[in-house]
Amino acid sequence: MTEATHDANPPRAVLVVVTDLFFGTRIAETARGLGVATTSCRPEQARARARAGRPTLVMVDLRAAGDPGAAIAALRADA
After folding, report:
1. Which pTM does this prediction carry?
2. For residue 9, pLDDT beyond 90
């Protein structure tokens, strides 16, 4: 069995691009337990939220309703 390791410098803010409320809540609760702040949004809101919040990490649910691929492309264009 391996031990979980924790990064000494975890992301300060995570943008979670998700449409499933339960999945988003599970991610947020886990992050909160690690001391990481999260903001959730739908794929069509991802670019504006990333510009406004400047997250250190973006998590995208590839099975989200809408067009998560377009959200990823828009986020990369701003990177």
Report:
1. 0.81
2. no
